[in-house]
Amino acid sequence: MNFLKKILERSGKLFEKGRPLSWAHPIWEATDTILFSTDKQTDSGPHIRDNMDIKRTMFFVVIALIPCYLFGAYNIGYLNDMATTDVSRSMFENFIFGMSYVLPILIITFVSGAICELTFSVIRRHEVNEGFLVTCALIPLTLPPLVPLWQVFIGTAFGIIIGKEIFGGVGTNIFNPALTARAFMYFAFPTRMSGEKIWAVLPDGNTGATALAIPANSPKNIASDLFSEASNVAPNYFDFSLWKMCWGLIPGSIGETNKILILLGAIFLVYVGIASWRTMVASVSGLFFTAFLFNILAGFSTNAMLTITPLQHLLIGSFLFGTVFMATEPVTSAHTNKGKWIYGFMIGVLTVIIRSVNPAYPEGVMLAILIMNMFAPLIDYYVVKSNIKMRIARNA
Amino acid sequence: MFKLKIKNGHNVNIAGNPDKKFLPTRHHSSVSLSPENFRYIKPKLLVKENDSIQLGDPVFFDKLNPDIKWPAIASGKISKIVYGDRRVIKEIIFEVNDDKEKSLQPNSPNGLSSKEGVINYLLEKNMWPFLKQRPFNKVANPSDNPKSIIISLANTAPLAINHHFTLSDQQEYIVSALKHLKELTDGKLFLIVRPGEFTYLSDLEYIDLVEIEGPHPAGNIGVVLNHIQPINNKDIIWTVEGHHLPILGKIFSDGIFDPSITINIAGPCVKKPSYIKTRLGCPVDIYCQDNLTRDDVRIISGNVLTGKEINLDGYTNFYDSSISIIEKSFERSFMGWLHPGGSSKYSIFNAYIGDNKKPYRFTTLQNGSERAFVPIGAWEKVFPMDIYINELARSIVANDVDEMEQLGIYECDEEDVALCSFVCPSKTDVGGIIRKGLDLIYFDG
Question: What one-character DSSP code corresponds to residue B158?
């Protein structure tokens, strides 16, 4: 280790101000501090500091995502195994089969993300922010397994550059960069980001609709009936019972399907103190409230989406994944605690509205969060304004 | 009596808490008074090197407010005046002559029954710098009319002195000091205490006791004021350090300036963390000799959150009541951000396996590099005031004075937000930001 430390220390001199490689100092700093924790001393302010830093914060979010990756890969293999009559694979083989789809997406995302982040940190002379690791870890989980890799590359670059860097980098961005990437891909490459053929790796002739697409395409029905019907009709073999949707062996984006693992991730992030439980609770309440309201209104409409019960809303699609990992993103969410309640609640409300009222966009949570990202500063503004008003009244 | 329960905050569990024991008293051959301990003043010297001097004699005054003079904190002679760049006076060092100090005769003052009387007496005795004001945390202005006076006898900072212990034999002087300080305001005189401490004060009808419970910064005057009497835009609040009360008491009852104080020396690198009976501006080396567990240490005058670094041959600062000593560490652990936890890591987040129950040996390591601020609610966890600190900090960074005022900058001081910097994962210096805002307002307004 000392050998490595010495190499880093010596090479570091090349990157100092005025030396030929000074332009690449952010890259050297990132490598140096990833390998060895910094020996930077406290100078002003408190002489002692907590051992938590941004590296560890971001790393924890990545840890919370790892189970989703593992299960996502297994699910791809499992669904393929189930739909293919002449093949039978073990659990591990299913996992390897799925990994052969997930890994390329993951690698391309990180390559694209790293290129953008490093380029910008060199041009803008800001330090490499570990936040991009989380962005890059999130993007593949929101994608269908059959997405073309070149689209992944462009989408990630768009998310990092337009979603983050043009606003000044981490801390000053308005939109969640991972969701910006997802939304961009959804609208730019609609044929490869929606429809029935992309959510599972299946043999020719089979289709795998997501749970959300089923009622969206069949008006004048009760959603629950449609789900149980879909479970019985070939070639849609997939069981859309509540339990199966919870356990996640259904077609969908790579990381969204297993709700139990997402919930575990949520508990972990709340426990370590990184994600806000307020946003999560508020968001689920908003979803339940609106879904319940729509259930009451369902009798007056032919829209089958209105009949989806609150619990089904919670379990289908990426709502939980979005709530836990995207809505709680600290920079783009509301910053005040009161604001987080409003922000989260509105995400829940908008998700159901977008899903149900306009079934052309079945995945409402992505748009709901992006819309609320936009409104978050406004919510904070009014929350803070009430504090200011109180102070002005006291001064008068 | 007010009872105040503070929820948000954190008692930093740092090793080297002082025992309730005294180190043997040492002889002080020199002491120091530094004009740099006083904010926003322009000092002008009244003495020269080698001048002979008596305790309490004026040493320098503030050109911006010539009525305020600073007292000699020892009898003897001025042994050295240290200048910095552009001849800024950094330090005035006194050579102590014990015999000369003992020759002082008590004389009971009179005319202390009115506000003017007390102010004039303190100015005349050069004792005014003991009074500080909020906002700005600077020496008070005698022509101001303070809304109230508040004194904290419950220091909740890490490794801080326990006033109940150090002031236990000073009851008479404390009461005398409080009685006369009350003359200075038409408002209330608040005293912050812990439950069950200083019970004799509850008999004094001119005092409003504030009983606080909860973690640091519960004992800070800024935090308490925010709950019981928030500082409005034009309000001035005066305050005195708790450990200075006996000095003021003696001045009021006996007319003698006795610079003795009780402070502590503590921290992970101190062999015998304990209390010391010493005096204002005392040298630290005599207490560090044979009392440190290692050589590469940082010596801090004040507590580890808000104190200032001083050299081994330096002196404690005027308002400080402790000497804290921590290890200077340059250790770089391999992939430190992956560390599982255990006794070598301390965090208020549940970010490491194992708990923080065992006192932790903090070092000068920043434990991470500075990054763009990511608001994961860390500051709010340890900031118990009705102020949106994140928004306030942003308005300061943007130099928006109107918004700073609206968001309550006058109610804050560096010490109130020190824990925010302590916990911040982005390693932001929140105290520095608050100070920048206050400076901006002070110099512009």
Answer: T
